[in-house]
Amino acid sequence: MYFSRNNNNNNNNNNNNNNNNNQHAYTYISMIDYSGQPHYLVAVDCIVFGFDGEHLKILLVKRGLEPEKDKWSLIGGFLGPAESPDDAANRVLKKNTGLEGIYLEQLQVYGAPTRDPIERTLSVGYFALIDINKYKTQINDDFHAEWFLINERPKLIFDHDQMVTDARKKLRYKAALHPILFEMLPKKFTIPQLQTLFEEVNDTKIDTRNFSRKIASTGLLLKLEEKDKSGSKKGAYYFKLDKKKYQANIQEFLNLLPSVKLTEQP
């Protein structure tokens, strides 16, 4: 019995030693695996959509470095060593446009091996939504960024055109689920402005009478006493969104865009 117990202890000690050795070996191998891997650059690129009351537009800048220097680009920059992608996107937007505290959502990661001819670079795409008239002077005068009609923009560098296409699809999908399009409108707006925004985002024409009737039937908008008389003497009443009611009656807005399939997210 005594021999048997000692033998078990010896076996246990051997097992413990083996486990410790295995752990050290695993740590060593892991360190080798990390150190032996190639390193890539990580960037963020921001698709900034804006609405000026008539047209859906996109904010672009001329690239300031090679390759593709002086060609039109999305607003972007590299990820800092102590930053998350979200932090970097907010920093890049503020640095290049002065924009902060705006609607900003991550789109997806772009990582084609040949997307940047200089060095392998992964880019995290984001899209932002703003009311152009609220920021127009600040952006144009201080940061030299320029607005372009979404369908008449110049050719962009790298895969930025694909990013814009993907962001627009995502915007259509999200707009059917959440009141995010109102981020591109002033706090008070007219029904014609709202209809134009829907048409621009979805690249389609909507019957005016049907749109007005359907919007009114949802009860999601609060009618104000003021009128916009810039277009006619009669004028058009201003409205604002009742966000609480919107969340409770989301299906009413979905009926305005029957082609949207909620089970097929882009």
Automatic annotation (TrEMBL):
Signal peptide: none annotated. CDD domains: NUDIX_NadM_like (cd18873). Residues 1-22 are annotated as: Disordered. Residues 39-170 form the Nudix hydrolase domain. PROSITE patterns: NUDIX. Gene3D superfamilies: Nucleoside Triphosphate Pyrophosphohydrolase, Winged helix-like DNA-binding domain superfamily/Winged helix DNA-binding domain. This is ADP-ribose pyrophosphatase YjhB (NUDIX family).
